[in-house]
Amino acid sequence: MILDGKKIQEKRLEILKEEIDESGFTPRLATVIVGSDPASELYVRMKHRACEQVHIGSVGITLPESSPTKEVVREIQFLNRDPEISGILVQLPLPPHINTMQVIESVLPEKDVDGFHPANLGRLFAGNPAFSPCTPQGIMTLLNEYRIDPEGMHAVVMGRSIEVGRPMAALLLSADATVTITHSKTRNLPSITGQADLLVVAIGKPRYVGPSMVKEGAVVIDVGTNRVDGVLCGDVDFDRVKDHASAITPVPGGVGPMTIATLMENTFLAAKRSLCTGVW
Ligand code: NAP
User: How high is the pLDDT of residue 69?
Assistant: First the structure.
């Protein structure tokens, strides 16, 4: 079974648009981009396009590549105070001279629709999430849409980044999976991934995972977004793994669209919560 993120994205965005129209208010997302990295610019454009589609207002702020950390933080504080802004998204990665954690921590947790603020990550790990990071939350939605229940499964997560691996593990644990996290120092990796009923791969290595690393009948979620000779591919060797797995996400068209759908959902959530102070 191919887990079609594009199709589920369209379905979720359609439902969200109706909810937003019925709510009678307009959520607003502010995006902050530092510099002019073409991939980051493309991702931000896609997010603004999705905003338009679901009737979320959007504001794009672009700061020069040379901006020091304190200037980025000042811009975010301005957005924090703006009652018209429901959610703030800082496009990562930031240029290397910028203190990324300081920037993330400057976003008001109530407007942190990316879910990377330590308050939101802490709540997620405590099993009481407010905003969960969009990629892993989008994966949970995709699994749910296809009636794949992680309860009791051995879920193996490859990668331990704050954006994907760690929150993915927390969400799967909350969904009653037994979770193993692996990383670049993990020994005997294939013997661990080969035990996975559900394998989530987020390592940024093109087509790294082949059939010998995957248990027959496993569910395989490929988060990787790599460009090889101008062609987009995942961290999983899709063509060789697809007949081995019971369900698998393609790249493109799998996890990526779900990330964007979740960002829209989180922004609407932030807007709703801002109307009932203290509820978030
Ligand atoms: P990242 O911050 O570079 O983290 C990569 C992780 O993979 C690290 O924890 C690293 O381990 C681990 N790793 C590297 N080689 C490994 C190996 N051979 N076996 C097991 N673990 C290994 O990357 P990220 O931000 O999590 O992103 C991962 C991939 O997902 C990238 O291709 C990125 O573009 C993509 N992505 C896609 C979306 C989407 O919406 N589709 C969203 C976010 C990211 P160490 O910690 O030991 O270094």
Answer: 98
Q: What is the CATH number of the domain that holds 40?
A: 3.40.50.10860
Could you report the per-residue pLDDT of 175-215, keeping only the tens digit for each? 999 999 999 999 999 999 999 999 999 999 999 999 999 99
Q: Where are the alpha helices (DSSP H) in the chain?
A: 5-23, 38-54, 69-81, 100-106, 118-125, 134-145, 165-174, 189-193, 238-241, 255-275
Pairing of strands 178-182, 219-222: unpaired
pTM for this model (two decimals): 0.97
Residue 243 falls within a domain, yes or no? Answer: yes
**Which of 47, 191, 203 maximizes ligand 1 atoms within 8 Å of its Cβ, making it the mutation to test the pocket?**
203
Residue numbers annotated as active site: 47, 91, 114
Domain tally, the chain? 2
Domain region containing 104: 24-110
Does the Cβ of 159 fall within 6 Å of ligand 1? yes
